[in-house]
Specification:
This protein is of the alpha/beta class. Helices cover 39% and strands 18% of the residues. The protein is globular, with a radius of gyration of 18 Å. 44% of the residues are buried.
Length: 305
């Protein structure tokens, strides 16, 4: 039996206001979505680590209009390895956890950290700094029953230090905290594996046993490199970069992956396929539900290949 309990799409505001978020939520409800990951940092809800009360109340009122299961994406720029901003990030993340509790969202996404090439002097303590920050956040989240989902990211500039997907899993294992799980972003893992010459399937196998949240969107696993497209559609045409395409547009073998891997109980399969592909979202939703049905029917991770 699959441990994946729900699937849906991410959503956020395109102008910083709640009204545009409401429009997208109504659209998602109309196509039969039951789970939504809210990009809350697309809205001014937090100021200097404090929740803006009036805005939060409006968000709560909005979310209660829908019968969605909610998860939350935290700071997209989150980076607990950065010594200069780590404290500010922690304060903002704690405030977001308070908002999570108010809208009954029990997962918040936290991106894995990195260091720039010119921060090499900070390298020795980077992993430990991230672990200490994650532990502090997890302890804060414990009474709210919110889990931090640590997401694997890909290298974005030359000389950058960043953990591989398997190393992200090791961070989660080392913390051994009930409120911290791994988040597999399959396309991110694919891109990073190509960039570093790693085996993509081995990397996600290493993450699966400690994974409690999934980000699913298609790609060809080709790093962006220094190429700059004039239109984002040109990246799609060449199949390079973090494309966030509908399922089936890239070359990830979703059926084989979901036949093989087993995740933690209560895992949500969240598709990061946004408004640009709104006409394809229904088809991706159907395919994701088939992946959920497929998952868990085969042998658990590590027993195949």
């Amino acid at each position: 039996m699959s441990n994946i309990i729900a699937t849906g799409f991410n959503s956020g505001s395109d102008d910083g206001e709640l009204e545009s978020l409401e429009v997208d939520l109504r659209r998602l409800a109309d196509i039969g979505v039951d789970t939504v990951e809210l990009g809350l940092t697309t809205i001014d809800l937090i100021a200097g680590g404090r929740v803006i009360k009036e805005r939060a109340e409006r968000l709560v009122a909005l979310t209660r209009q829908f019968d969605f299961r909610y998860t939350v994406h935290g700071l997209v720029s989150s980076n607990f390895m950065d010594p200069a901003t780590c404290r500010y990030q922690l304060d903002a993340a704690k405030a977001l956890i308070e908002v999570c509790d108010r809208i009954d969202a029990r997962i918040i996404v936290q991106h894995g950290g990195c260091l720039r090439a010119d921060q090499i002097s900070e390298r020795a303590g980077a992993d430990q700094r991230e672990r200490e920050a994650l532990f502090e956040l997890a302890e804060f989240a414990r009474p709210y029953d919110v889990r931090i989902a640590l997401e694997n990211i890909f290298t974005t500039e030359p000389g950058q230090y960043r953990q591989t997907p398997a190393e992200v899993a090791e961070t989660v294992k080392a913390l051994d905290h009930p409120n911290v799980v791994a988040l597999i972003d399959f396309s991110h893992a694919y891109i990073e594996s190509t960039y570093r010459g790693l085996n993509f399937r081995e990397q996600i196998r290493a993450m699966a046993p400690v994974t409690g949240h999934l980000h699913v969107h298609d790609s060809f696993g080709r790093p962006q490199g220094s190429y700059e497209a004039f239109y984002p559609q040109e990246n799609t045409a060449m199949g390079i970069g973090d494309l966030h395409m509908p399922l089936g547009w890239g070359d990830i073998d979703w059926e084989d992956i979901f036949s093989e891997l087993e995740f933690l109980p209560g895992t949500v399969l969240m598709m990061e396929i946004g408004l640009r592909y709104r006409n394809e979202q229904s088809e991706s939703l159907d395919r994701a539900r088939k992946l959920m049905a497929l998952n868990g029917r085969d042998a658990p991770v590590g027993s195949r290949r």
